[in-house]
Fold each of these.
Amino acid sequence: MLRRTFLGLLGAAGASVALPMSARAGGKSFGPHPDTLAVLFDATRCIGCRKCEQACNEVNQLPAPDSTFDDLTVLDTKRRTDEKTYTVVNKFQGTSAPVFVKKQCNHCLEPACASACFVKAFKKEPNGAVSYDASVCVGCRYCMIACPFEIPAYEYDEPLTPRVMKCTLCAPRLAEGKLPGCVEQCPKEALTFGPRDEIIKIARARIAAYPDRYVDHIYGEREMGGTSWMYLSGEPFSNIGLREDLGTASAPELTAGALAAVPIVVGMWPVLLGGIYVVSKRKDKIANDERVAAVKDALTRAGEEAEKKLHDALSKAEVANKRRIEVEVKKAVEEALTPKEDAETGEEES
Amino acid sequence: MAVHTTTAEKQSLFTPFNIIAGIILVAGLIVTVMRFTGGLGAVTNLDQNNPWGIWIGFDLMCGVALAAGGYTTSAACYVFGLKKYHAAVRPAILTAFLGYALVVFALGYDVGRPWRLPYPLFVQQGTTSLLFEVGLCVMLYLTVLFIEFSPAMLEWLGFKKIRKTVVKLTLLLTIFGVVLSTLHQSSLGALFIIAPSKLHPLWYSQYLPVFFFVSSICAGLSMVIFEGTLSHKPMHHLMDEEYLNNHDGLILGFGKAASLVLFGYFSIKVIGLAYDNNWHYLTTGFGAWYLVEMLGFVALPSFLYAIGVRDRNIPVIKWAAGLTVLGIIVNRFNISMVAFNYHLPSAERYFPSWGEITISLFVVTIGVLAFRFISTRMPIFNEHPEYKNEH
């Protein structure tokens, strides 16, 4: 081979190896929908007035709560969203003053509930909302297992038509060009609504402007693959009910390995099991053939032995025969001689 | 048979077994009415933090694992060529078929809208969900099991031609069954991979699917021995010479296999622990319970099986089988209930209600009654005289 040709092939091989590498790397990561909207919650501004809860209840036509929304004693116990409440405010003890945190669906970029639903009742919309379709929901509640923020709630007391209930990011209002109910109502501007990219810039600007007031982290920027609802806080997030051990892997990333194994098993198991079957079948056949051969060999050997015995017997018989003939001949000769003597005796007497 | 039939007819209906079964059935029916008139909240302790309880943990997770005897036995006999286990295939297939049928039956109680169970397959497929794969596999495998079971039914009904056709499919069905079983046994474990923040680190692992599959082999082998032990006395009159002659050989063979698989399972669990560097959790309360599960229900039965096989001690093997079956239940309960939501305060943790326990007993009782009904009428523990040596 010519040196120039060899070097050319070598270079081509190197180039072809490099190309798929970058393509494969690119395919691994997902970004948000380009039009994803987001909300920034600033815990340093929230005063726990519960106006957002009231607004949410009204715009979503949820059932009336047990006590009125201006009853702030409910903040003394930790609450969570349920089948009648899309959002709740909880109070936590900060280092110097109480901290209030609003809890609702975080509308993950790659929602665990959507990934977990085996009937696609949950869907990530282009505007960032995670919508729910009750018309196909089976009620398996796997979305509740999967959600790292424990948001979906179920109508356990509904016997025939139970649904999963959670914040919809006021999707009908967004469609009309309005703000979500809670954002519109917040008197302290603790909630800021806008494109996710802009929201992240705003959050970073606040941290940069007031570094002593904020923890240097935007909760939800990357948690579980990133969310549409993000948090700023002056207290460590684990102190205000936001878990810091969620990691950055999205739900689909976690389950991709197990799902990827399915076609491998479907493809390889029949070959493997078929092979085992063929091997065991062949082993049986070989064992059977060997048995037949052994029987045949035994029969052959027995035949040969029998033949040999027969031959020996015949030889012995032949020898015996010869001796018997000799004996008989001798007898005959002797008998032949005796009558002559008798005849001679008769002649002498006559 | 005529003599047995006469004897059975003369027996009183009020045997202890029948009385207990009757009580459970009546209680089950009452709770059923409550469930479908008052919703899940009326009979369960499920809440917004604990959406899955004993009906998923026991009826689904344990039910599927303990029904694994079907694929392990048929694989041993038809794929690996171990013909001496032939007599055990039909009881194992029947148990598996009833097991999976009851899983679907129990899901009818647990899901909010049971009439929509076909939706994931026929209306809108959520293929990113491992639960979709579980559902698809269970549906297909239930079909496979029904076809594998049907020769016994066809023999009873006297349909010779159809039976002959179905028997020819045995190897294909067995391989297909093993493929499906591998997938859904492992995917039941994979269901929890999506929730790393809720399942205790000692039980959470990226290897959960592998752990579930390997432990299902242990469960299958042990369940065949365990159930053979339970059936031996009450069903003895139905067992023919082939079954009885091979029974001890089956126990020894499966015992040896179970010992090895349990040892392998223990090894990969230790590897999983090391891989995630979770040794420090062993000194906690959950760690103590983890050690009980691993040493008491995995290592110990593995050892007992080995002792029993070496000494040809059948009772020891039977005890090891019972211990392994109990261990599978402990493991599945741990993953779906005990170690799940470990981060919540104890007041918010789940504990099953009487309604849930009643329905679980109801489901198991139906299974036992169905098994008894079928095996007394169809050739499960014996070969039909007309079809002897036709396999």
Amino acid sequence: MARPRWLVATGLLAPTGLWLGLFLIAPLALVVQFSFATRDTGVARAVLPWTAQAYATALDPAFLPIFGRTLAYAGATTVLCLLLGFPLAWFTARHGGRYRTALLAAVLVPFWSSYLARIYAWKALLDGEGLVNTLLGYVGLDREGGFLLTHAAVVLGLTYGFLPFMVLPLYVACERFDHRLVEASHDLGHGRASTFLRVVLPGVAPGVLAGSLLVLVPSAGDFVTPRLLGGVEQSTFGSVIDDQFRGGNNWPLGSAMAVLLLVLVVVVLVLRGRRGEDVL
Amino acid sequence: MTRRPWVLGGVAGLVFLFLYAPIAWLALVSFNDSRSLSRITGLSTRWYARLFEDDRVLQALGLSLRLALTSALVSTAIGTLAAFGLRRAFPGRGPWTVLLSLPLVVPEVVLGVALLGFCVKLAGIPLGFGALLAAHVAFSLSFVVVVVRSRVAGMDARLEEAAADLGASPLVAFRTVTWPLVAPAVAAGAAFAFLLSFDDVVTSSYLTGVGSTTLPVFVYAQASKRGVSPEIVALSTLLVAVSALLLVAGVLAAAWRARRTGTASTFVEAGRDR
């Protein structure tokens, strides 16, 4: 008991710290080092001379559309997840009653089930002869060749994949939200829209922030969904990084892009500030 | 909003439909008689039968199971220790918290390529089980810590103090008071870690070696080469069914436990009154 508290805490944290230091921090540091390397350096120790060439290439206007597309996909996915996730979270938290846990578990089942399986399901559904196109055909809205390989297909797939990431923090925020505030707002003469914008939304803001972050980051980095539902034409940041490491064999360029993606994450984190933290 | 939940309930219902319709379709198509993924022509279980004849599938499944079990064990063990380490304030807790939440925000593709470079060019770790384990524990740790930590934070410290006052050694107090309280969270963390590892595609795809491919990476490679086949759909359906069963079992176990501990705590209340 005489041991100082920080020593005990550090001892308990040490194994995890060691693992993360070895298999997360060190590899990330190596990526930063790679990003300044000249092309085709073979081994890590032979990176000198240092050069910012990879960053110049990564920020070349040729890659600009890919940047833009990635951000557009991630942004659209986040907004859609918010629009779909909020009613679900609010309903479960406010009106779920004794079925709350069951409802939450029902949101989680798709989340914990094979990620690939879910993308394949959409692949089959969006195909030219798939169910979606067939059903739309009855009302004359079908599309030649189906909806695969479109921007809409990618955003749909990403939304489907990351929706639970939004619902969980939103649910926590909705549950904590004091519902009497809504009644008070109505009593004070505010309408529904005004109550929602000025009372409910600020109240659940931490959940909205946390959820948006949890959706934005992975959807910006994902390359499996864009590749399977969007095809080679709709390459995103993640798939360009993947190409540099797997196919193109330009590790410095891939590393520079990975670092840029990390910078984006850090910017989002800083913008979020500390508000969403307690819900995460 | 309170008085008329029907509209809201309807919208929530539609979102649930959106979540489940593709999975239902997947399950239906896996029993389809023809190779078509779009039109049901009849029922058959032949895709499942063919699946279990494929050695590569069984091999990948074996590796995935071993990997998920090992990674869940390691990350739960050290992650639980870490969660206890963060229990009380101490100098340096802030930076530790940042480090522990880092894996949540590092994009999977970045983690994958970073570990690939690390294993191949710096540490000389051969790709395969070891490299995969390093990665899977790294990204599961945060989830374990988040889950266990919330339980540890919500625990009444007076219970342990009472045990100490009554003469229990720290070890006995831990075994009889603390551990039963956190055990469900530790189990939940382990289940999370297992499923995260079992389902991972992106990070794993960089770290699998020759002859050591995980099931999701195998599925992804097959589908990228030849497109989605009914065998792959059958396999996916199985994966969905397994994780759904795990989750339902978890929820039921939690409910059962809550009822049991519910009676236990009334017991304590009764004792306190006396």
